[in-house]
Amino acid sequence: MPKPNQYALILGGGRGTRFWPRSRRRNAKQVLSVAGERTLIQATVDRLAPLVPPERIWVMTNEYLRAEIARQLPEVPAGQILAEPAQRNTAPAIGLGAVVLQSIDPDAVMGVFPADHVIGKPRQFLRYVRSAYREAEKGSLMVLGLQPRWPETGYGYIEMPNGTEPGSLNPQKVVGFREKPDLATAKRYLAAGRYFWNAGMFFWRADVFLAALRRHLPKCATLLSALPAFGSRPFRSQVQRAFPVCPNVSVDFAILEKANNVMGLACGDFGWSDVGSWDAVYELLPKDGERNVSRSGLLAVASRGNYVDAGDKLVALLGVDDLIVVDTPDALLVARRDRAQGVGELVKLLERRRREDLL
């Protein structure tokens, strides 16, 4: 049964540069349907619905995306879709959300969820979410750790105590947080069995988080605590002035690595993917007999392991393997699948060349 003091804060302000050329400032990854008919942010709201109804869902995004997110989520009150005036990473974004939620409900318990992940087993996922909300109500800063399926170098890790069993609903005291490792270290983490992927999902009482913010990130806490009441006329203008001055820092680095009341759940498999690149989308979608994935018409001869997304256009492949082909009206991406993580570098190059029309 949903509890009236449980809220969800969905973080949807990223640009998704590794999904260029589909993902742009005004049409970023989280508002695209890259792995199903529903967009990623719509799917996030859908799977939370059994626990957190739309009237208790809040979204933190940016000015470029706010209108599109409001259009895609008509069930979420428009006033609960907030736009950051500047990108300042997750600590200030969550801090602003906590200030707002505590002002409307002093007993608020908030779950923090990325807007752009895929979860293939939502029922299993909600088991852990329920447990995390319960533990957070007791005063813990709760994190979800996912049992690693391979030695991933692109994720941070959460270290749990020796003997921690994946899939248990019993919270464990977190030993520490580990930055993205090199391959040898990732293999060691996988073999050890007590290191879990940090999925970027957190749970805490708003007042507990704000106390941690005051202790570990006092400048940010001071700026946010001085804001006028949410909903008042000066609130937005004051946010416009205060938020860009907040430190640009992640909640993991600023708070969780320093706090002494961090607990975690060692989750089993619930079909999670951060959908971090076109190659990750390829891995999620069904493949033909030559392991090609196509979201367009495809004519393939002696071609294997390719991902094609070209709208209504027929794409013909001859003698090529393991490519990404993404075609939009103004840009075409052709890349090797094993270089998919580097697509963001192309966006940086476009920024240096001031190609605003392609950003």
Tally the beta strands: 18
Distance separating the two termini: 44 Å
> What count of helical segments does DSSP give?
11
Shape: globular
Strand content: 15-25%
Essential attributes:
about 350 residues, alpha/beta, ten-stranded mixed beta sheet, about 30% helix, four-stranded mixed beta sheet
Describe the structure in your own words.
It contains eleven helices and 18 strands. It has 359 residues and is α/β, with parallel strands linked by helices. The strands form four sheets. Strands 1, 2, 3, 4, 6, 7, 8, 9, 10 and 11 form a ten-stranded mixed β-sheet that branches. The model has no long low-confidence stretch (mean pLDDT 96).
Brief sketch in words of this structure:
With 359 residues, this protein is of the alpha/beta class.
